[in-house]
Every structure is written in C-alpha cells, then in structure tokens.
Amino acid sequence: MTVGLALALGAVIGVLLGLLGGGGSILAVPALVYVLGLGIEQAIPMSLIVVGTASAVGALPKIRAGQVQWRLAAIFAAAGIPATFVGTAIGRQLPQSALLIGFAGVMVVAGIRLLQDNGDTGTACKVGDSGINWRHCAPRSIPAGFLVGLLTGLFGVGGGFLIIPALVLMLGVEIPVAIGTSLLIIVVNSAAGLVSHVSAGGIDWAITGAFVGTAILGSLVAAHLGTRLDTRRLQHWFAYLVFAVAGYVLVDTIFIH
User: Fold this and answer.
1) Which of 54, 110, 151, 211 could form a disulfide with 161 if both were Cys (CB 3.0 to 4.6 A apart)?
2) Of the candidates 29, 49, 45, 86, which has an alpha carbon nearest to the alpha carbon of residue 201?
3) pLDDT for position 118
4) Distance in angstroms (rounded) separating the CA atoms of residues 59 and 57
5) Where does the protein end up (predicted)?
6) How far is residue 215's CA from residue 225's CA, in Å, rounded to a whole number?
7) Averaged pLDDT, 193-211
8) Torsion angle defined by CA atoms of residues 4, 9, 15 and 20, in that order, rounded to the nearest 10 degrees
9) Cβ distance 166 to 141 under 8 Å?
10) CA gap 76, 59 in Å, rounded
11) Pairwise CA distance, residues 118 & 242, whole Å
C-alpha cells in the first residue's frame, strides 16, 4: 500500500515538474510526511534523491542544447555545497515542528515566486551582449548560492524558485539558460545534501525508488504534452496549491500536534 501511494505521489509531482519546469518537487517533503507518514528526518534525504534525480533528467537536454552557464553553476555550487552541510547541522539541532514551520515558510515564498511574472531579464551584471561582468557579479552569486545550499540542507528543497530569479534578475541570464543552469546547481546541491544526511540512515529505498521512477516518467510525459497547455495559468493554480499545503502544515504543526 505504501509503495503504491509512493508511485501515485511520484507521478503527480513528476507531472507538475514536467508541466511547470520546476517547483513540483517542493511538495515531495509534505507528501512523504503527511501522506506516507514518514518523519521529516527520513523525508528530507528521500526528497533530495527525488529532486536531484528529476533535475538531472531535466538538465541533460539543456546541456546538449548548450543552455548552461558553467562558470555561474560552479560559483553557486562552490558556495552551496558547504552551506548544505551547515543547513544539515542546523536542522539536526531543531525539533521536527520547527523544521515543518520553516518549511511552510519556504513554501509560501515559492508560491509567491510562482505568481510573479518571470518575463523580465535584469541587466545589472551584463556587458552589452558579450556576457557577464564576472568581477562585479561573482560576489553577488556567492551569497545567493550559500542561501540556496542552506535551504537544501535544512529542508531538502532544490531552491530553483530562488536560483532562477537570482540568475535572471541579478545577473541578466536569459531564462532558458537560467533554467538549465539552475537544474545543474540543484543536482550538485542535492548530492551534497544527501551525503550530509545519509549518515543518519533511515532511507526507505523501496518507497524512494517508486517515487523517483514515476516522477521521472510523469515529468517526461507531461513535458511532451505541456506545449499544448496554458502553463502560466497552471503555474498560478499550482501556487495556490502550494499555499494550501503550507497552510495545512502550519495548522497541523501548531494546533494539532
């Protein structure tokens, strides 16, 4: 029964990832905790496996198309990898209720980002059409990369809802390249986060495998079909779903448990 639920949940999250190009993975931890009944200390590393694997699958076509800014990805990863270990260490000192309340806050921020128009590209770090002014913009990337890594270690989220705006609005990266670069950063951070969490053990590999398998399949099918749908409207509806789940997490954590 539990594996069957994992298959269904993975398919739903995969479809959301495929339709929206990201964001669906933020539901992985709530699904593992509230639907499958796992503790958050189990849910976070399992979520990182789902997030990292799904992002790797999504990154491959972007890499082949040349839509990755490798130097920016390296800067974000260099700042993010140690931050995932810091986030994990902080998380181990906090009770589950505090982590769940913090996670709900992250979900609210992600929902707000989903409702905002992502059509504009910043120019603060661009030098005409020739590229990025690295001397000016590398220092901007380091704190952003650290924050994303911290969230990955603490909550098991990929952080694409923060990475993409940082790349687009702060650094002037075109949106297709920002998405590809973000996916690569998420893969690296998720791997680091998993290493930092794996010593705690408790990963249910049957549930994780079922979750990952259907998430990948769902994302591939949905990505193929998504060109026929109004993804902007879907993104708004998904934001409202994220707000609803965040509200449930807060009510359950504060008033019920």
Assistant:
1) 110
2) 45
3) 57
4) 6
5) Cell membrane; Membrane
6) 15
7) 80
8) -170
9) yes
10) 16
11) 18
The predicted pLDDT at position 227 comes to: 59
C-alpha pair distances (Å), 1 with each of 6, 7, 11, 58, 213: 9, 10, 16, 29, 17
Nearest to 82 by CA among 149, 159, 160, 151: 149
Q: Is 132 helix (H, G, I), strand (E, B) or coil?
A: strand
Instruction: Indicate whether this model's pTM tops 0.90.
Output: no
244-to-21, 142, 160, 191 alpha-carbon distances in Å: 21, 32, 20, 29
Which residue carries 């929206």 as its tokens? 20
Residues contacting 117, CB < 8 A, separation 6+: none
Question: What is d(CA 195, CA 198) in angstroms, rounded to the nearest whole number?
Answer: 5
> Which uninterrupted H or E stretch holds 65?
none
Report the distance separating Cα 148 and Cα 96, nearest Å.
Answer: 21
Beta bridge partners of 126: 132
- 25 DSSP assignment: G
Structure tokens at 251: 């009510």
**Long-range contacts (CB closer than 8 Å, 24 or more residues apart) made by 122-125:** 122/168, 122/169, 122/170, 122/171, 122/172, 123/172, 124/170, 124/171, 124/172, 125/170, 125/171, 125/172
Is the C-alpha dihedral spanning 23, 40, 181, 145 positive or negative?
A: positive
Can you give the C-alpha Rg of the chain in angstroms?
Answer: 17
Residues sharing a CB contact under 8 Å with residue 109, sequence separation 6 or more, in sequence order: 161, 162
Ordered by start, the domain boundaries in the chain are 2-256
pLDDT in tens, 27-41: 888 888 888 888 888
**Residues forming a β-bridge with 132:** 126
